[in-house]
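quick one, 212 residues, struct below
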Amino acid sequence: AGYCATQLGRIVTIFDDPSDETEMTEFKASVVAFEVQKNFASKFFSNKTVVKSLIDDTSGNLLDNLYLLLYVFTKNKKESEKTTRNIIKISIKLGMLQRGEKFSLEEKDCLIQIQKNLRAVAMTLISFYQVDFTYDRNFVIKYLTELETLLKNLISNHLTDKSVGRVEQIFGVVKTPEFLDSVYVPKKNSEMREIMGKVVSDLNSCLEAGIL
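---
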């Protein structure tokens, strides 16, 4: 009876305080990534070349902080998790297709271009955060739109329309003027600005480690 009462008390506490910070922090990219990788590997691969984790600690930290940024922006836990999960799913599926030697020479060139574009986007996001009055919304949107097109072209021959839809969902959030302005326009959203500082630190770590 005592155990039941304790559990009921915990449940009541959760519902009494829906703004509890645990809502923001309970999402863990590394856990999601492991599940996604395991499921995808069992469907598409029979060898062990894809067993090694595709999401390292540095990338995991970046994705965790990106989730927090999305959560503060949307005020919607489910939508923020959906966007972050979609990023993880697309990243892992691309990585596993590459490891499984599924890409043609032309597609490998496209992947190299995606990696260059992604690196350029990361460096631009860092620069706009660190150097005042340099933020150019249209410049970021242009780069992100190009990245979206490249990704959709690459995966369309290997993954389902659902995966293409995931790419569209991701960019449908992150390349919107409202989201970008909330991060970069001074005093527009101080909480997002603070979390973006962590994202920038993670992006720098990923660049230094050669992940991006």
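The longest helix spans residues 105-130.
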